[in-house]
Amino acid sequence: MSSVTGVYLPTMDPKARIEELREALHAHNHSYYVLASPTISDREFDALLEELANLESHHPEWADPNSPTCRVGGDLTDKFDKVAHKSPMLSLSNSYSVEEVSLWAQRVQDGLPDEKVEFAMELKYDGVAISLWYEGGVLVRALTRGDGSLGEDVRSNVATIPTVPLRLMPGSPEVLEIRGEIFFPWEGFNALNDSRAEAGEAEFANPRNTAAGTLKLQDSKEVARRPLDCMIYNVDAATMTGLGVLTHADAVKEAARWGFKVPGGRSLEVAGSIEEVMAFVDHWETARHDLPFAIDGIVIKVNRYDHQRRLGMTAKSPRWAIAYKFETERACTKLVDVEYQVGRTGAVTPVAKLQAVQLGGTTVKNASLHNADQIAKLGLRLGDMVFVEKGGEIIPKIVGVDTSASHEEGLFAPPALEFPSVCPECETPLVRAQDEAQHYCPNAVACPAQVRGRIIHFISRKAMNVEGLGKETVAQLVAAGLVRDAADLYDLRAEDLLPLERMAQKSVDNLLAGLVQSKTVPFERVLFGLGIRHVGETVAKQLARSLGHIGAFKSISVEELVALEEVGPVIADSVVAHFSDPNFERMVNRLVASGLQMEAVVQAPLGHALEGEVIVVSGVFSTMSRDEAKTSVVAHGGRLASSISSKTTLILAGENMGPAKLKKAQSLGIPIMDEASFVSRISGQE
Ligand code: IVH
Hints:
binds 2-(butylsulfanyl)adenosine, D-amino Acid Aminotransferase, Chain A, domain 1, CATH 2.40.50.140, Helix Hairpins, globular, alpha+beta, 26 helices, 7-stranded antiparallel β-sheet, 5-stranded mixed β-sheet, 5 domains
C-alpha cells in the first residue's frame, strides 16, 4: 500500500488513515523487533509514527492505549492496580546436577507408565515473569508475579517494550493469557550503566534486578528509554488444547504467528531421552556466554499437554517441569593488590587486582570489592588465594578466601588489609557518612583524582566532545598545574602546552581547535558536562528546556525545581547545592565569559509573553501537539511544571483536561487559559 509506506494522501479520511497507520506500524514493529528483519528504514518508520502522533493529537476521540504511539510511554502512574492471576503464577523446582534431572525424569516416567515422554527444553531467562492478557486481540493487562496469586498491573510500562505486541495478528484467540519473561539485554544494560556512571550515579548491579525495578517505575517514558525485551515461554494449555494444539513446543510456534517473540533455533528443542536433554544443557553451559542476554539455567518441560495435566502440580510448582540451574561460575586466584580509586564525586572504591584467571569465557584481572565492610568481612590479605564469582553481575566479585591455601600465621604473614584512612590521591582524611558504606574524599576542590574525573566528564563525547583531548592529556594538564577545572581549559595557550611531554605542535593545534569547536555545543550538553550529581543527559536536557538559560539556575529554589517536569527532590537539592557553591559559580561564570552556549536554543527568539509564569500544560490541543504547546511555553519565557501546586500561575488547558486537575486549579484560584487565548497571548494580541 503506497499510502502506508510514505506517500500520504491528504484528502483521506483521518479516521481511516489513523487505522491504516496503526496497522502498518504494528506490522513494521513486529518485523523489526520480533523477526529482526526490518521492512522499512528507521527514517520511514519515524515519519509514519510522527504522522500518526500528529493525527491522534488532533483527534483525541479516537485515542487508543494500544496505538503504536504509546510505545514511547505516557503519563505518570501513582500506583499499579493489584489484580488476581487467572491461575497461580508458580515457580519451578530447581536442580543442579545430572542426577537430579534424571531422578525428575524418572518420576515423570513413573507418573506416566507405558507412555513415551517427550521433553521440551528451553533457556531460563534471567529476568522477571510477566502475564500478558489480551482481549479482542488487544493488550489489556500485564501482571507481575507478585505473590503468585495477586500481581500488579504494569501494563503502561510493558506497553513500551517493542517485542510485546499491543495488538495481535489476525486469527489470534479472542481472549488470551500468555506468560513470558521480561529481561534487560546486556548491550542496553551496559549502556544504561555507562550513562549512570557519567551522571555520577550508582551503577546497577545486574540486569535482572534492573528489569524488575524498571517495570515498577512510575514514569513509563523512562521505561521506554530502557531497551527491555520479552520472550514468551508459556501459553495457557486449555486455550491451546481448544485450538487443537497439543504440545508446548507447537504452542510456542503458534504464539510466534500471533506476533510474539519466542525462542528460535537451538534455544527451544524437543528431546526423547534424558541423554538428549543433557546434551542440550551441555551445549548452553558454554554457548550461553555468546547470548546477548543473561540466562541462569535451562528449563525442561514435559512437551504434551495431556501428559502435563496427568502429572499435575504441587502447591509450589508443576511436576511436569524443572529448572536446571547453571552453577555460578567461580575461580580461585591470587589477590595481588588492592587499588583505591577515587571517582569524580569523591567516592572511594576498592578494586582487587588479581592474577589473571579464566572465568565464564573471559579473562578476569580485576574484581570489585564494594567497600571497607566487605574487605573486613572477608579478612583479606595481599597474597591470599581468593574465590571469584561472576553470577548475574558483570563485574566479578570476591566471595571468599581459600583458607587452606592461605598464609601460615607467623612472622611473615602479611597483615589483614585495612581501608585507607586518607585519600590515596591527596591524603585528605576520608569521611564516611552515617549509615553509608561508602568512604568519600571531602577535598572536592583540589583532590587531583576528583579534578581529573570532573574534567574527563566535561570533555566526554556526550558532553562537550572536545576532540584532540583525552584522559592522559587531562592527567598531564592537571599534574602540571595548568588546569584545575573545566574553565581553565579555555585559557590554555599554545605556549603552555608545547613544553609538555608528547605535545607536538600538531597535537597542540588539534587540542586548541577542539576547544574552540566545543563552544558551539548546545546548552543542554554544557549543563550535563558541568557534572552536577544526579543530572544525567536526560535531566540536563529537561532542565535546559524548562529553565532556558544558565542565569535561571542561579536563583531557583528547591521548591521551584521540584515543580518542574522530571525533577525530584534529590535532583533539586543537588542543583541548588552546586549553584550555591562559590567555586562552582566562579567556574560557571568563567565558562560563560569564554563563550560557551548557555542558553537553550528553543527559547531564544520568540518572545517574552509568558515571562514569570509557571505553567502546567494539560489536555489535548487542536492546532498543536502537547509537546509543541510545551515548547511554545518555554520559547515565550514561561516555565513548565508537571503538576498543579501553589507555585503554578497558569494552566494551559486543551480539550479533555481531567476533572481532578480542574478542581485543584479552581480550588487554588489558578487561572485557566484555553488554546485560543494562549495563541493570541503568545502572538502578542492580548
Ligand atoms: S516456565 C509453571 N520457562 O523462572 C512455571 N519459566 O522459578 C512456568 N523463567 O517465574 C514457568 N525462563 O519467571 C519457564 N523458559 C522458561 C523460563 C522461566 C525463565 C522464570 C519464570 C519463573 C521462574 C521459575
